[in-house]
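Page 37, continued from 36.
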């Protein structure tokens, strides 16, 4: 006959980790950014609905170039869709930060490297002398966030 050890029927759960304060701050900032992006997407999509009206076209007629007026619906639709997607991603990232989701860490790392790269490339290609001199300040915050995300306590929170 087989004997069973019933002294511990379930595995002991690991001790709860406390979320690092910086992760909480990043989560709150991402949530605020997500709310702002979703509100801007709503406003842009409302403007898209108004873009076809005669009054809207007349209001912009003297101020905007002709090519802009001809493509206004396309431009507003694209900007609204991008704002909506980025708002949803920011809210998802805030959720992932608060709950220590592994995918949130990877997404933040990817976004940080893309942000630094695009900022450097666009500044070097389009910027003047002042923009190029300010490049270090433009990428300082994303670099600091990347360095923070690679700290041992933060990596432990995300189980990476």
């Amino acid at each position: 006959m087989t004997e069973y050890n019933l002294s511990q029927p379930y595995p002991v759960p690991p001790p709860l980790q406390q979320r690092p304060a910086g992760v909480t701050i990043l989560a709150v900032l991402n949530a605020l950014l997500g709310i702002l992006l979703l509100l801007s997407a709503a406003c842009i999509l409302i403007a898209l609905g108004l873009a076809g009206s005669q009054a809207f076209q007349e209001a912009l007629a003297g101020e905007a170039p002709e090519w802009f007026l001809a493509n206004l619906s396309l431009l507003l639709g694209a900007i609204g869709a991008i704002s909506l997607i980025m708002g949803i991603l920011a809210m998802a990232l805030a959720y992932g930060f608060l709950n220590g989701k592994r995918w949130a860490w990877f997404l933040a790392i990817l976004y940080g490297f893309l942000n630094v790269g695009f900022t450097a490339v666009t500044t070097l290609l389009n910027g003047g002398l002042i923009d190029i001199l300010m490049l270090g300040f433009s990428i300082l915050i994303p670099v600091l966030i990347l360095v923070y995300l690679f700290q041992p306590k933060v990596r432990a929170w995300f189980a990476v």
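The two ends are 44 Å apart (CA to CA). Flag for discussion at group meeting. The mean pLDDT is 87.
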